[in-house]
Specification:
The protein is 34% helix and 25% strand. It is an alpha+beta fold. Strand 2 (22-23) and strand 3 (29-30) form a beta hairpin. Bound molecules: zinc ion. Zinc ion binds next to loops.
């Protein structure tokens, strides 16, 4: 479920407290973050993203994030979902092109089988990036498969938790 993005909302800039994760909900792994609440004020729709500097209360580092408007955040999510959706047709087209280059035969098995894990990884990565897009980018805070030292969380509209 996509996170609610509002023009003005509370965010938490968290500093990761542990290197190793611990068991979380539903068999997942979780890391503990502690930090400060940051009142995000997004630019108006149609305006470019703005840079904000936040100082981490845990380590004192100055962190720079780009904050995007609600419309731009929606556009960034859609672009990632579209990217994930066109991966499979793109892969099929690439395999057909490789097959056409090899005198009409099927593409070599090693290329076909070797590219399947990359295809799945790309679809997974783009889907996760779309789901995690909150319109606050920087320092790898929303990149999938990346465990940043500092991460931005938004307050859940359902129960007030940081998600
Ligand atoms: Zn820190």
């Amino acid at each position: 479920m996509a996170r609610l993005v509002e023009p003005v909302q509370d965010a938490l800039v968290g500093h990761r407290r542990t290197f190793f994760g611990h068991p979380g909900l539903n068999g997942t792994t979780a890391w503990d973050y502690q930090g400060r609440v940051w009142a995000i004020k997004r630019p108006a729709d149609g305006k470019p993203g703005v840079r904000h500097c936040v100082t981490c209360l845990e380590c004192g580092r100055r962190l720079t994030y780009h904050v995007y408007s609600v419309a731009e955040t929606r556009r960034r999510r859609i672009a990632r979902w579209v990217g994930a959706a066109v991966c499979f047709p793109g892969w099929v087209a690439a395999m057909l092109a490789v097959g056409a280059r090899s005198a009409g035969n099927a593409p070599p098995l090693v290329i076909t089988m070797g590219s399947v894990p990359l295809l799945y990884l790309m679809i997974f990565w783009l889907g996760m990036a779309a789901a995690r897009e909150i319109g606050v980018a920087g320092r790898g805070s929303t990149l999938p498969l990346f465990l940043p030292k500092h991460k931005v969380f938004l307050r859940s509209q359902y129960n007030g938790d940081w998600v």
